[in-house]
Amino acid sequence: MSPERQHKADRYKNPEDKYRCVFADMLLRDILREYFNISAPAFYSDEKGKPHLVEDKLHFSLSHQGDYVACAVDEKPVGIDIGQIRKVDLPLINRVCTEDELCYVMGSSEETNNKVWDRFMRIWTAKEAYLKYTGEGITGGLKSVNLADKEGIKTHPAQNLILQQITEQDYICTIVSEI
Fold first, then answer.
1. What pLDDT does residue 145 have?
2. What's the pTM value of the predicted model, to 2 decimals?
3. Can you tell me the distance from the alpha carbon of 116 to that of 158, in angstroms, rounded to the nearest whole number?
4. Beta pairing, strands 171-178 & 148-149
């Protein structure tokens, strides 16, 4: 593991989170070796803390939560996030969502809490994946990005971008990449 990744793993208090962080690094290294013939990748972090390959020919993004670890590798910048659908309180929804996103998340008055939580996690993972793509990370401000309207998530948040979501059991994985 790179010293930066080891430091990141060491910051986790929960042993399972440390394990997932280490596994994400192993997954990335396996993908780089298997598909791109890079057996000893070297990494650095930019001024915002985003990790990069020294070769700069490839871009990657990692995420992990609960039972899953996700990794995206591309020749262009990419962002990925995975999140578990769970109970979320209204103050958090209001802190994270723009007005347009709130319309989508809250839906009609007949919506069940499960539907609201599902929609919120779609927004949350979309924002995190987008902010990883840009290199800002969540310090860039989750509310600074508007990725939905009342109809749903924008699949093309910018002219050159595509946003894709995959649902597996009670997890949502979002990938943001260039077209």
1. 92
2. 0.92
3. 25
4. unpaired
